[in-house]
Amino acid sequence: MALERQVRAKIAAKRDPQQEQEAKEWIESILGRKFPCAFEDYLRDGQVLCELMNKIKPGSINKINTSGGEFKMMENINKFQQALKEYGVADIDVFQTVELWEKKDIGQVITTLFALGRETYRHPEFKGPNLGPKPADECKREFTEEQLKAGQTVIGLQAGSNKGATQAGQNIGASRKILLGK
Q1: Which backbone phi and psi does 132 adopt, to 5 degrees?
Q2: Low-confidence residues in the chain, pLDDT < 70
Q3: CA-based R_g, the chain, Å
Q4: Which of 74, 82, 89, 138 has the fewest CB within 10 Å, making it most exposed?
């Protein structure tokens, strides 16, 4: 029992109620309806996520399963994940099916929703609300050969300094003898 409580506490610590509320309100505003139950329960079967993806990019998920048992509901989640990746969300930002289906890591599900919300900024055809901060635009820089060579002669401060460094107290090659008192 104590271990189970520790696991639940660890999972709860990953969740950010403010981000969860923002994601919930974002989904509600896009779908035009309120959540009738707990956030993770409403998302669990993947139907809402598929609807959300179809509102963001119409036709991205052609068939949403509304019945058929656990396998069909988990298939909805997989379809949503595939549509996310095709939309441009990085694979690393996409939660694992089990994290939602078994409610193991709702925090990661929220992270995925924020990644989707950020990706909507890059799609001007989406006219709905965005979620999260706008991604930075590329800031490409060009350097001449002369500038690159000039940088090779400079020792970066990241390397630190050896000022005052000594090997005092380092016992290199000598072993410590520990005597046990009687």
Answers
A1: 85, 180
A2: 1-14, 154-179, 181-182
A3: 26
A4: 138
